[in-house]
Amino acid sequence: MRYQKPFLSIEQQIVQLEQRGLEIGDRLLATRALEQIGYYRLSAYWYAFREIRDNSRTDAFLAGARLQDAVSLYIFDKKLRLLVLDAIERIEISLRTDIALTVGVHGGWAHRDARFVHPRFNKPNRRGQIPFQEWMSRLDKCESRSRDEFVTHFRTKYTTERFLPVWMSVEVWELGLLSHFLGGMRHGDITAIGQRYGLSDAKLLPSWTRTFTFVRNVCAHHGRLWNRAMVDQPAFPRAGAIADFDHVVVSRPSQERL
C-alpha cells in the first residue's frame, strides 16, 4: 500500500479535526499549538479520544473530545519526562559509584577481567558472540571518544596505560553500557548492589536498568512517555516482597505501559 495522504496547511488540519468531531475551541490557540508542537506529535495524545469500533480506533472522535485536552496531556507528559529524567540521573550516578566500589576492590581494571564477571557473560551466546567481549568493545569506543578533562589528564600523565581504571571509566559509561555490565556481574556482586536498594532478587536490578535505558532514551529525544508501551518490560518482585510494587505486580496493564 502506498502512502497517499496529502499535505495539509494548519487551517486544513483544524478543519479536518473539526470534521472528525474534535472540539477546537479558541482557533488562535489551536493554530499556535499545531504550529509549535505539530499535528503528528499531538495526534499521539488525542489518539485516546478516538472512537473504537470493531476493536480498532476510527478517525472519529468521542463526544466531548477537545483539542485543549490533548494539549494538556502533552504539557503533562513534558513535565513527567523532566521528573523521570531527574530520577534516572540520580539512579545512574548512584549505580556508577556502586560498580566502582564493588568491582574496584579487586583492582583498577577488574571490570576488564573475566574472573570478575559471571561465567555465562564470558561464554558464546546464541549468535556465537561472547557478551563480555562485545561489552568491552563498546567500552573501548566509549572511552576513546570521551573528551572529558579528567580523561585527557589521565592520558597525558599516564602514557603507558591504555585504559581507564574502573572508578574513572564508569563516569563515561552510557546508561546502556552500565546496564549491560550489571547483567554480566557475578551473582554475589549484583546481589550486594541490589540489596542497597532493597532488592533481594539478583535479576531485578539488571532488568530495571534495561528499562531505565529505554525510558531515558525516550525522554532524552522528547518522545511521548505517557501511556507508552514498554518495549523492554522490567521483571517484577513477587507479590508481598516489596509492598510499594504490589499494585503493579497484580495488574498486567500497569506492567506494560507507563
Topology:
Blueprint: H1 10-19, H2 27-36, H3 39-46, E1 50-53, E2 56-61, H4 67-104, H5 131-144, H6 149-157, H7 166-169, H8 175-184, H9 187-195, H10 204-220, H11 246-249, H12 252-256
Antiparallel strand pairs: 1-2
Helix pairs in contact: 1-2, 3-4, 4-10, 5-8, 8-10
Detailed description of the structure:
The protein is mainly α and about 260 residues long. It folds into two domains: about 10-65, no CATH class; about 95-255, no CATH class. It has twelve helices and two strands; from the N terminus they run αααββααααααααα. The protein has helices at about 10-20, 25-35, 40-45, 65-105, 130-145, 150-155, 165-170, 175-185, 185-195, 205-220, 245-250, 250-255, and strands at about 50-55, 55-60. A two-stranded antiparallel ribbon has the order 1-2. β1 and β2 form a beta hairpin. α4 (about 65-105) packs across α10 and α5 (about 130-145) runs antiparallel to α8. The protein is elongated, with a radius of gyration of 24 Å. The two termini are about 30 Å apart. The mean pLDDT is about 95.
